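Write out the bound-state structure for adenosine-5'-triphosphate.
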Amino acid sequence: MSLLQVEGLDKSYTADKRILKNINFDIKAGEFVSVIGPSGAGKSTLLRCINRMVEFNEGKITFNQHDVGSLNKKELRQLRTNIGMVFQHYNLVPRLTVIENVLHGRFGYKTTLQGLLGRYTEEEKDRAFYLLEKLGIHEHAYKRCDQLSGGQQQRVGICRALIQEPKLVLCDEPIASLDPSSSKIIMDHLKSISAEMGITCLVNLHQVEVAQTYSDRIIGLNNGEIVFSGTRSELSADQINNIYGTETKDLIMA
Ligand SMILES: Nc1ncnc2c1ncn2[C@@H]1O[C@H](COP(=O)(O)OP(=O)(O)OP(=O)(O)O)[C@@H](O)[C@H]1O
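---
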């Protein structure tokens, strides 16, 4: 059964330009799916529509059997506890410690006051340490986040998403700011989260070969439309040209 179903999704930020055009796809629980496409294709917008960080104009998104578009503020907050998010620039609080940043992932389960006072249970703290250990950064637990390398900060970002106990993790260009060796570490962790913990991952990527290495399925987006959806072995050179074609043509013409 689908964990996520997107039907007829349309998004415009301004009246004169459709950014996403009639997007349709399904993701099954536990799948690892990448979204690739040229800059400006709408990859970030698509991810952000799923948890309504960005409001969409048309269509239907069903997550875990909930109609995302019809949820009120309280229901949306509840739904978002099931959807973790990992960002290109980590979105950590730099002056706070690693463990504090991870525990921020529990905010969705707290009252505002509990969150502000940093009231976390022993079980939550144990879980945070367990996740830091799993991602190989537990020895940095009490360091400020701004003392960590980019790759280490991204691992903190992943731990913060995981402590939410999500069913789905949305990753928006998680390796775009990292060197190849840190990128591999991050992608390996995301893959094992999906394979071992059964968490569904939807990952925006710039690098086709990374998408091919890690994904069960790849979605190719061009100018707001899905122009490819298939397995990594189905993604031929022609398909890649089709996904990135407009950008290549623009570059040649420029
Ligand atoms: N908040 C916004 N207001 C207006 N336009 C926006 C906004 N966010 C994105 N856009 C526009 O929507 C289009 C798609 O942007 P988006 O960031 O979703 O693409 P992307 O495929 O993720 O690109 P990149 O790979 O460069 O991050 C772009 O033309 C962008 O300028």
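---
Confidence is low (pLDDT under 50) at residues 247-254.
Residues 45 and 219 are 14 Å apart (CA to CA).
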